[in-house]
Amino acid sequence: MSRDQYTFVNPAELYADIKPQKQHMPEPGLDADLTPKADLGEESYRGTGRLQGRKALITGGDSGIGAATAIAFAREGADVAISYLPEEETDAQRIAGILRDAGVTVATLPGDLRDAEYCRTLVADAVSQLGGLDILVNNGGKQVFQESLADLSDEQFDDTFKTNVYAMFWITKAALPHLAPGSTIINTTSIQAYSPAAILVDYASTKATINAFTKGLAAQLAPKGIRVNAVAPGPIWTPLQPSDGQPQEKIEEFGAETPFGRMGQPAELAPAYVFLASAESSYVAGETLNVNGGMPTP
Fold it and tell me: Does the keyword ATP-binding apply (predicted)?
C-alpha cells in the first residue's frame, strides 16, 4: 500500500521492517553505505505548495534529517541549497537529483562547517545561486562517542563545538542581512540537550547551547518579523550513528528506549521543519519542537 505523511498509521508499528544493524563506517558516514537504508521520504513525502517560491539553505543536506528536510522543502515548492562535506558528494548528488525532479532550483555547496570563511561564503553562494534566502536550517552536526572524559581530546571537543555551534553562529550572522520579515531560522538540537548520554558529553553540551541560542535569538529577531525555532530529534537512523556516533554494541538496540520502542526515520522529522518554515507557524518563535518517539523533556 502506498503511504504518504497524511496516511493514518499506528506509529508504534511504523517502520517495523527497518531494524538497526551493527556496522561501522568511517566518519562522516554515507547514506549510500547505510544498512538498512534510512527513509528520507523519497517515495512518501507529498507536497502541497506550502513553501512555494521560498529559498532555503540547509546544512548537512546530503543525508539523514537534512536530506529528508531538503526533499520535503523542494516538494513544497522551495528552491534549496544544501551544504555538506566534500567526502559526501555521492549522497549530495543523489539528493540534488531528487530535488531537481521536484522542479526547483538546487545549489550544491560542499565545504567544512569548521571553517568560518566557508560558512560565510556558503551564505553568499546560496543567495547568489537561489536569488535570495528566506529559510535557514542549521542542521549539520558532529557526534562521536567517548566512554570517558579522559579520552575526549581537545581536538574532538573543538571540532564538535565548531561544527555544531560556531557554524550556526557564523552562518546565521552572515544570513541576517538577507532575511526579510517573514523569514525563518530553524536549528537542529537533540534529546541530548535534555537527557545527555554519559558517552556524549561534548555533543550533548552543544545541543543544550543550540537550545539557548535559539531562544535568545528568537527574542532578538521577533520584532523584526524573523522567527527562530528548533527541532529536537530523538534517536533517528542516520549515518551519524554507525560512524562512531554510538558504540557498535548499542546499534542493534538503537531507539528501543523510546515509548514507541523503535528508532525514528528522517522522513518523520521533515514535516516538523516544514511546519516551522511555513506561514502556518506564524505565531511560533523560540520553540523547541521535540520529535523523539515520546521521550519526556522539560
Answer: no
